[in-house]
Automatic annotation (TrEMBL):
Entry's transmembrane regions: 6-27
Organism: Mus musculus (Mouse)
UniProt KW keywords: Membrane, Transmembrane, Transmembrane helix
Name of the molecule in the record: Gag protein
Length: 30
């Protein structure tokens, strides 16, 4: 149970980090 919750949190953080990188690259292109 703990491992599953930890995995979900890790996935959410990875998703936010990816969105942040994409936004930074997008702003550089613009």
């Amino acid at each position: 149970m703990f491992g599953l919750k930890f995995f979900l949190v890790l996935e959410a953080l990875l998703f936010l980090f990816t969105c942040y990188i994409v936004l930074k690259i997008g702003l550089k292109i613009l």
